[in-house]
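Researcher: Structure for this, please.
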Amino acid sequence: FLMDRVMHTSGLHGKSFIPMLMGFGCSVPAIMAARTLESDKDRILTILMTPFMSCSARLPVYIVLAGSFFAEKAGTVIFSLYFIGIIIAILSGRVLKAVLFKGEDAPFIMELPPYRMPMLKSLLIHMWDRSKMFLKKMSGVILIGSILIWALSSFPKTIVYSKDYDGKIDGIKSDYSQRIASFDGQKAEELNHELGLKLTAVENSREKERVSKSYIGMIGKSLEVFFEPIGIGWRESVSLVTGFVAKEVVVSTMGVLYGVGNDEGAALEKALKNSGMTALSALSMMIFVLLYVPCFATILIIYKETSAKWAGFNLIYTTMVAWAMSFLVYQSGMVLGFG
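Model: Predicted structure, token format:
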């Protein structure tokens, strides 16, 4: 009721505010919450706008990229991304309302009941019922998506490597075993630690080459033409493809492709800076992550709550908006000399 006037700027009623607010947590329950809207037009429009709210799964991507390239201004950049998502959602609402959902607005009538403090028992029962429903609907989707990404990144098994990694590992082990045998105490521990670091570096290099020659690496390289105008390389392209299953996977995929394995954080930040990625291309990627479809589970829930037509439309529409905004930011930055 309080947000009704504000929500009218995007062509919606105040009831749409709660689903969109929930979108900052997770788009799936936010879209399910749109069931409270009586008008089909308002419900579908709210569902189409909600994915532009930056869900919590995108935050790790922002933290890595903003932390790597914007240092002290990282917090401001991340806050700006959330704000941009809200602005794009409002503008999208106005455009979609004018083009696809024409007609008179339904009158907004909302009964405000007497509010009372909820009972703990009923609160826990409702929480359990809703959580169980959410887990039942989404666990299968996430499992299937994870298996698909694993299969694409694990096959083909017969990969011809550019280097003899096994021979290199054997050589390092042989060299260090002789040196370690010559010492004891702290010096031997130091050499063991050094051996571990060198073996990890070789293993990470092998894993980096393996993933680049896997099916998902091939997909990423084929998409490079699509992402090149917005300053995103093939490694980031692969990360964005895996991010379609869950945004949390984007950072770990970049860790593998940049040869730092599970040792993310400072190691990944250093690898990103050494890769040729600039602050402008990092900003472009963050905007793309902000605006393209949150995950496969979101598309599935849109399909279940509306239809295959609207699910497909949302997938294409959010990707187009994400690409257009990233293109605008990257190319404008290049013209202004920020590249």
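Researcher: Any notable elements?
Model: The mean pLDDT is 86. The CA atoms of residues 68 and 166 lie 33 Å apart.
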